[in-house]
Input
Amino acid sequence: MSKAVTEEFTGWRKALWPIHSFEVKKFLPMGLMMFCILFIYTVLRDTKDAILVNSPGAGAESLAFAKGIGVTASAVLFMVLYTKAANIFNREGLFYVTALPFLTFFGLFPYVIYPFVGGIHMDLETIEAYQAAYPNLKWIIPLVGNWTYTLFYILSELWGSAVLSLLFWQFANAITPVKEARRFYGMFGFLGNFGLLISGPGIILVSRYVRSFGLSRAETTGLMLQYLMAFVIVAGIILLVTFYWMNRNVLTDKRYYDPEAMGETKKKKAKLSMVESFKYILQSPYLGLIAMLVLAYGVSINLFEGVWKGQIKIAFPTEAEYNEVMGGLSTVTGGIAVVLMLVGSNLLRRFSWKSCALITPVVLILGILVFFGVIFYNNTQLPEGLSIVEAITQGYINRELIVFVVILGLAVNAFGKAVKYSLFDPTKEMAYIPLDQELKIKGKAAVDVIGGRGGKSLGSYVQMGLLTVFSGSALYQLVPVIAPIVIGIVFLWILSVFGLSKKFKELTEQNEKQSA
Output
């Protein structure tokens, strides 16, 4: 039997479609679920910044405070509620009660909330008056004054951590053995990343289409939100229907899901209280290493993106131009990711977990250092005392040079995210499979939500701290300080991969012996 299975995948089939015919019924719905989640994630990611940055009294500086304070606090609250819900609902019910509140809010926002923001938000004069009275809270006041935009931003940020990292991968880990995961996980991402390929151009087309009507700025934004959130709701309905169908038509067949083989019919430990769950998680060095991977990625990519988005603002100062750059990022990321998913799927099957897990930090640090190097060179060309904007205005530096930096950063960002989707996420999720059910559910919630959001928030705190210490400086001027920080974080990331690889191998072998 083993020899027959091995020989079934040869030539192009082994490289492009390592899925048995009878497994299609299980594999394709999972791929469709990831497609819907990533499609929604991309639409929200590219919309939330434009809404909050351009709200009355706010600016790009407000994003650091929104992430560092609002998103982090919300992630902690979500994790607490999710942990409680995990003790009440079964796996299927937990999926619904977690995803539905997000989709409900996004569906209501353009039709029920946005038309009335003029009455429930502070006006610009009030925000500016508070900013003048409390200058230390200058970038926090707009977040409070435009509170529905802030809420939209926070929930959009949490969607990736809560629904993709937590719900989808928890479901996949629960029904997929390690040997099957080596073939499936990379291919899930291959299908899922078509969501980026479709959503990126869709965002660009919608933005251009609504501007063609010549409406006021508020009316144009409202119409854009209606179109984009309609896409989100349709994708959300497909996601929930597919999950419902799988639970009744796939997981009832032992060919696709055998609870006994996955260790779920063994005697389980009693469900822990919330305090006991935290202690249980903190006492696991294994989970600590996974958390280090997630934190390191979040901090390093956030520091890079902070500098890169500043360059976009310099080269493309209007809202329309900025949004088109972000739509282009999603499109390029999706295209690269689809190709890398095929490569990553083959790497996961042919090489060790450690080798595959090391690719992401190595690729990311090389690209970031090249990007930082070009910016450092540009900084050396600036006349003393002039900012880069002033240097462009006065003709000391060509705008095309900054455009080149933006394109370079877009390439690094797109390639880094594509490698994350094709190798980082699958290897991280495989690391959860040998754990017991308590750690799979509650440990994953803590690592993915707190670790994922905490990584981005920590990156925001670093930026906020540097801008406070070096007051008057822009992020691109702080590259000589930021670059060593990123190098140190990625070095810890690589060390964690080595430590986790050893534990993952030991735990997998131990579980295989127990199953035998």
Observations:
- Residues 365 and 487 are 7 Å apart (CA to CA).
- The longest helix spans residues 479-515.
